[in-house]
Amino acid sequence: MSTVKQRFEGMLQVAAQRGLSDVHLKVGQPPLFRRAGRLISRKDAQVLDAQSLEQMVEVVLTKERLQLYAAGHDITTTYGVMGVG
Q: Distance between CA atoms of 38 and 48, rounded to whole angstroms?
């Protein structure tokens, strides 16, 4: 498994373990998690750079959705991790 995929799935595992509902990723910010309708960040979270986020997007999106993203469209998606959710 790639390091990028491990990092991404690790974020999802943390979210699931802590009862957080969503993970929001944006270049120049640390990952944000939704808890009870509010966005929060982990104090130890690293700011995402463009290359890291692009690699995570490539792990998650299908080829077709990746083309939409590359064309400038906003993408909302889901991703499951075996044994996590």
A: 20
Rg (C-alpha) for the chain, rounded Å, is 13
Other beta carbons less than 10 A from residue 29's beta carbon: 13
For the chain of 85 residues, list the mean pLDDT of each consecutive stretch of 10. 84 90 91 93 88 89 90 86 83
**CA-to-CA distance for 60 and 50, rounded, in angstroms?**
16
Compute the half-sphere exposure of residue 66: CA atoms within 13 Å on the CB side of its CA.
Answer: 11
- On whether the CB atoms of residues 31 and 24 are closer than 8 A, the answer is yes
Q: Which two tokens stand for residue 62?
A: 């299908």
- Six-digit token string for 7: 């990092």
Closest C-alpha to 2, from 53, 56, 48, 54 = 56
Token output for 2:
């790639």
Q: Give the predicted TM-score (pTM) of the model.
A: 0.75
